[in-house]
Write a structure and sequence with these properties.
Layout (H helix, E strand, L loop, with lengths): L1 H34 L5 E6 L20 E6 L3 H14 L8 H11 L4 E2 H7 L1 H4 L2 H15 L8 E2 L5 E4 L1 E5 L2 E4 L8 E2 L7 E6 L3 E5 L2 H9 L2 H5 L1 E5 L6 H14 L3 E4 L4 H12 L8 H4 L5 E4 L4 H4 L8 E2 L2 H11 L2 H5 L2 H13 L1 E2 L12 H12 L5
Parallel strand pairs: 3-4, 10-11, 10-12, 12-13
Antiparallel strand pairs: 1-2, 5-8, 5-11, 6-7, 6-9, 14-15
Helix pairs in contact: 1-3, 2-6, 4-6, 13-15
GO molecular function, one term: DNA topoisomerase type II (double strand cut, ATP-hydrolyzing) activity
Protein name: DNA topoisomerase (ATP-hydrolyzing)
Family: Belongs to the TOP6A family.
Length: about 375
């Protein structure tokens, strides 16, 4: 085991050095062209999470780009954007790149930085956080790497509990000792090792309120599972952590979201990834995840009272119609598309908690177990 770990650490170090070499060569080429009075043309591959092609002959959600974007100093609009990317790459010290300096400092000192930290290095230059976000995405695509390869991490927002124990760096997460106690999802997912689990499945819930209901009802004790919540739209660490668990534990994963267009969008983010991070889909999506509920048809099946059913707003309907056009719904999960159409036809939405209107423990004692054991999922 120790030999395998040392091999992985060695491979990680080699990959970091290779990435540094790529960044150095990139900046060197740019500087040579600028010194010689030439305008560099930089091709940035573009990826997408979905399209609206009905024939499904697309490369959405794959490792293949769907086209290129050209960045050049010849166009004023591109100069501004390229300048911010270069500012991340170039510092004033002998044409060294700021990212190179960060990588050397962060990588060799075993430290990490957030996008927010980078923004506050020079807020007067970047003007807005979105400028840094866009520039980092461009750099990741150009260098064919993920943010964590650059030691750029996001603050974790997710929660986990249940039958699992693992080590993240030097920190031990022992959820097994107290399966119904919430722990923050790990941020440095690449440092996770020694995963031990006796769970039968993973349950992903959309929001913290439902997570707390399961914790209070000791759901993990009774069902020997792992429960994760991204507390709304999941952040990158939560999605990477879920991906890691599915890859290593070989157990089913289910997702429970509100029966509304935003809950459905969160479900698709877990399974298919997001448009913003489409270039890194392979590390972030979980195609194995099943939709456990809440389905539009559940309102009739479980006798949800009319006062718990809210009418869809104009914005809800617009969002549903747009989602119905996504290619992956037609190509991979047409049954999800049917449920989404039913939501639009019924014209109502409801929250997960509405299922507990008859008894407080309905979710934990009846709804979720019956869905999983009765295989009422899609």
């Amino acid at each position: 085991m120790e030999g395998k770990r040392m091999k992985l650490e060695s491979q990680k170090a080699e990959n970091a050095i290779h990435l540094l070499d790529k960044i150095k060569e990139f900046t060197r080429s740019l500087l040579i062209n600028l010194t010689n009075g030439n305008s560099s043309i930089i091709l940035i591959n573009r990826f997408r999470n979905h399209c609206t092609l009905s024939d499904s002959n697309c490369f959405c959600g794959s490792d293949l780009p769907v086209g290129n974007e050209v960045l050049t100093l010849c166009k004023e609009t591109r100069v501004h954007r390229l300048g911010h990317s270069l500012y991340l790459l170039l510092s004033s010290m002998c044409a060294c790149s700021l990212i190179i300096l960060l990588l050397f400092k962060l990588g060799f000192e075993n430290k990490h930085s957030s996008k927010r930290d980078i923004y506050y290095m020079h807020p007067s230059v970047f003007l807005d956080q979105s400028v840094v976000d866009h520039a980092i995405n461009d750099i990741c695509v150009r260098m064919q790497c993920s943010r964590h390869n650059l030691n750029v991490v996001s603050a974790g927002n997710g929660l986990v509990m249940g039958w699992i124990r693992f080590v993240e760096g030097k920190k031990i997460f022992d959820c097994i000792n107290s399966p119904n106690t919430a722990h923050p999802t790990p941020v440095y997912v690449e440092e996770i090792k020694d995963i031990v689990s006796m769970a039968h499945y993973i349950l992903v819930v959309e929001k913290e309120s439902v997570f707390r209901i399961l914790a209070n009802d000791h759901f993990c004790n009774a069902n020997h599972c792992i429960v994760i919540s991204g507390r709304g739209y999941p952040d990158i660490p939560t999605r990477r952590f879920l991906r890691l668990l599915v890859d290593n534990l070989y157990i089913p994963a289910y997702c429970l979201v509100d029966c509304d267009p935003y809950g459905f969008d969160i479900l698709t983010t877990y399974r298919f990834g997001s448009m913003q991070m489409a270039y890194d889909t392979k590390h972030l999506r979980v195609p194995e995840i099943h939709w456990l509920g809440a389905f539009p048809s559940d309102s009739d099946r479980y006798f949800v009272p009319k006062q718990c059913l809210l009418p869809l707003t104009v914005e809800d309907k617009r969002k549903i119609k747009a989602m119905l056009l996504r290619c992956y719904l037609q190509r991979e999960v047409p049954e999800w598309r049917l449920e989404l159409r039913m939501m639009l036809q019924k014209g109502v939405k409801f929250e997960i908690e509405a299922l507990s209107v008859h008894t407080l423990s309905f979710l934990t004692e009846s709804y979720i177990p019956s869905k999983i054991h009765g295989k009422v999922k899609i």
